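agent> Task received from the user: take the single chain below, predict its 3D structure, and emit structure tokens. No templates, no multimer pairing.
agent> Plan: (1) validate residues, (2) run structure prediction, (3) serialize to tokens, (4) report one or two observations.
agent> Step 1 OK, no nonstandard residues flagged.
tool_call: predict_structure(input=
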Amino acid sequence: MFRIVRFDLLLKFVVLISIFIAVAAYIIVQKLTGANISISKLTAISTIASTVVMFILLSPFMSRKIWFVARVFKKDLYPDLNGVWVGQVTTEEQKSFEVRAIIKQALLVTEIDMHGETVKSVTLETTPTIELNKKKLYYVYRSTPKNPSWGDYVGSTIFDVIEDGSALVLSGKYYTDRKSVGRISIKRVSTDINADVSYY
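)
tool_result: status=success, residues=200
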């Protein structure tokens, strides 16, 4: 299993960029002012630079821009899943019902907010991965039924991430702690992450 963002490489990248920014700032200030800057000031500049770089890299807005640019050069890179998704859940009794979801994805976090007419789910954990050159999304969630007497339950799904031309589809089997199983398939219909997909 391969995580799409390797934390060790991300940290090395941030450190190298921070050092580059700190040294460049040191040289520019020294050239412009002619002042001799102390090592403590250089350390302060480096700390500020690394903080700024980290915030920029990890912001959802910048993550999407970085992802877009990276996919121009590397077409088989894991796709940006941000947006509105619509599909259906099929239970083991072959009953189907519609679900809608919002997926918000940044470099280190993926959240799925999924809604059905009688239930809504929140993300407990997600892990985008690549297994044997197949893109997958591990998803663990807690569902809250509309009827309060039914009680919450926990489930998990391993989604296959299917790129069908310009369309994206997530499809996989789900399992719950109620011993129920079924299949869920959703398709992205919009890249707007601020839409309201709730039923109630």
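agent> Step 4: summary for the user.
The helical segments are 7-33, 39-58, 60-73.
agent> Done.
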